[in-house]
Please model this.
Amino acid sequence: MFRTPTWTNFHRLHHRLTAADKRLNDELKALSAASDLPRTTILVERPTAVRKSPPVPYVLQK
Model:
């Protein structure tokens, strides 16, 4: 399990493999049966802090 701060960073990490990464992936896939390849699950986490909208100005009418 690992985390990236943004969706863009996640894509950057997974779509820029080196030649060594590609070879390693191919070797690992060759060790598995075609029907039993490892699965990846991606969970998108929401920030837990609640963002408050700016206050609405209140004007007293006389």
